């Protein structure tokens, strides 16, 4: 099989910052509780006119700036999101229009916080089969629209943002393995409850019967740790790469304590885990690709490095990829 890898990365985070101290004014919480229980210090919130497609388009444009493949030559666009602008058209079709990728087919995937790796692996196999030569994979979520801003159990955890990757053939390295697993028997642990009163973050906006996120945080925590540790181990085994050789792990950023427990359970030094949760909180599907983008930009990941990407989310859904960095 030809080697397929990531050719370029991009990201977009809305400029509006919501700090833990800002949240202290909205719900009964404290900077100390949020910091010690999650590692989060602040998160980004999209402004009222900024839809998920806008975040996705900005991230796509950022990735295309350094991509060897031009927008007009992109052949597939896959967007991972659970907060699309509307049920249809897909966010992917809106991105296609905005960037002028006229040759592409485009669709969305729904896999909550695991969405980016589900989309990445799907795109990789489209390319590997010869169906397309390249793909633009985007993850974008705007959780601020589905959060109950009176529920301290959830509103302190999430933020908005997007990340993007251009995939195509590489001469060395690339995506060495992929692993995806789902457990629908635990679907009730997290979901979006329809039709209940949700109060918006902005008091100027009228409240109504809007859907909002409900979550059993403790049970999810207990599932996330073995789920992510097993996913890394499976992906490494499939790649034939010993865990010792992995120089950087880029995990889904839901909770720094989950990341520490995954490191311990997997037997990988926590220092190898790239963490940016303090800046953005949990940005759902976008978490792992935004973190990957920042890890590469900061020089934490370099050409030839073996990297593990690992995610976990509502569904339940987990995934991991081992990647040998190509640029
Ligand atoms: N501020 C202050 N106190 C709070 C807050 C808050 N924001 N939230 C909860 N508390 C209180 C609770 O009411 C509880 O009080 P009590 O003991 O008097 O009842 C106490 O703090 C402890 O609550 P726990 O739920 O036990 O807190 P925990 O340490 O488990 O942390 C958390 C909660 C952060 C949600 C954690 O369980 C977690 O990160 N879970 C996993 C989340 C996750 O991975 N989600 C899946 C991915 S997301 C996706 O797929 C889109």
What is the count of DSSP helices, taking H or I runs of 4+ residues? 10
Which ranges are low-confidence, i.e. pLDDT below 50, for 5 or more consecutive residues?
A: none
> What is the distance, rounded to the nearest whole angstrom, between the alpha carbons of the first and last residues?
20 Å
Q: What is the alpha-carbon Rg in Å? A: 19 Å
Q: How would you describe the overall organization of this protein?
A:
β12 (306-313) and β13 (317-324) form a beta hairpin. The protein has helices at residues 20-24, 31-38, 52-65, 91-99, 115-128, 152-155, 217-239, 256-266, 277-280, 286-297, and strands at 4-12, 17-19, 42-44, 76-80, 105-109, 135-142, 160-169, 174-182, 190-198, 208-215, 248-251, 306-313, 317-324. The chain has two domains: 4-171, 3-Layer(aba) Sandwich (Peroxisomal Thiolase, Chain A, domain 1); 176-324, 3-Layer(aba) Sandwich (Peroxisomal Thiolase, Chain A, domain 1). It is of the alpha/beta class and 327 residues long. The strands form four sheets. The protein has a five-stranded mixed beta sheet with strand order 1-7-6-4-5, with helices on both faces. Bound molecules: acetyl coenzyme *A (ACO).
Name some characteristics of this structure.
globular; 13 strands; Peroxisomal Thiolase, Chain A, domain 1; 327 residues; binds acetyl coenzyme *A; 2 domains; four-stranded mixed beta sheet; alpha/beta
Topology:
Layout: E1 4-12, E2 17-19, H1 20-24, H2 31-38, E3 42-44, H3 52-65, E4 76-80, H4 91-99, E5 105-109, H5 115-128, E6 135-142, H6 152-155, E7 160-169, E8 174-182, E9 190-198, E10 208-215, H7 217-239, E11 248-251, H8 256-266, H9 277-280, H10 286-297, E12 306-313, E13 317-324
The structure holds acetyl coenzyme *A.
The site of acetyl coenzyme *A has 23 residues, from α2, α6 and α7.
């Amino acid at each position: 099989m030809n080697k397929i890898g990531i050719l370029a990365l991009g990201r977009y985070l809305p400029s509006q910052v919501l700090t833990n101290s800002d949240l202290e004014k909205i719900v009964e919480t404290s900077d100390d509780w949020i910091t010690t229980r999650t590692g989060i210090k602040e998160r980004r919130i999209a402004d009222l006119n900024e839809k998920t497609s806008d975040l996705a388009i900005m991230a796509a444009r950022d990735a295309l700036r350094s991509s060897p493949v031009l927008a007009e030559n992109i052949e597939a666009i896959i967007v991972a999101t659970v907060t699309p602008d509307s049920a249809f058209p897909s966010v992917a079709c809106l991105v296609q229009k905005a960037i002028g990728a006229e040759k592409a087919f485009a669709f969305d995937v729904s896999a909550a916080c695991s969405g980016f790796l589900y989309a990445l692996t799907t795109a990789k196999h489209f390319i590997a089969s010869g169906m397309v030569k390249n793909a633009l994979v985007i993850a974008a979520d705007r959780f601020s629209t589905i959060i109950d801003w009176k529920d301290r159990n959830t509103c302190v955890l999430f933020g908005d943002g997007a990340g993007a990757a251009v995939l195509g053939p590489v001469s060395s390295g690339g995506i060495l393995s992929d692993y995806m697993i789902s457990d629908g028997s635990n679907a009730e642990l997290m979901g979006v409850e329809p039709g209940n009163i949700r109060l918006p973050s902005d008091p100027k906006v009228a409240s109504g019967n809007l859907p909002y996120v409900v979550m059993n945080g403790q049970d999810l925590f207990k599932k996330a740790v073995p789920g992510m540790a097993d996913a890394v181990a499976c992906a490494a085994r499939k790649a034939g790469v010993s865990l010792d050789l992995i120089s950087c792990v880029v995990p889904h950023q839901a909770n720094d304590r989950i990341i520490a427990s995954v490191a311990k359970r997997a037997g990988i030094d926590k220092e190898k885990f790239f963490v940016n949760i303090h800046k953005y909180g949990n940005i759902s599907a976008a978490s792992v690709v935004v973190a990957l983008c920042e890890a590469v930009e900061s020089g934490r990941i370099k050409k030839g490095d073996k990297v593990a990407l690992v995610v976990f989310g509502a569904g339940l859904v987990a995934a991991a990829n081992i990647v040998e960095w190509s640029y």
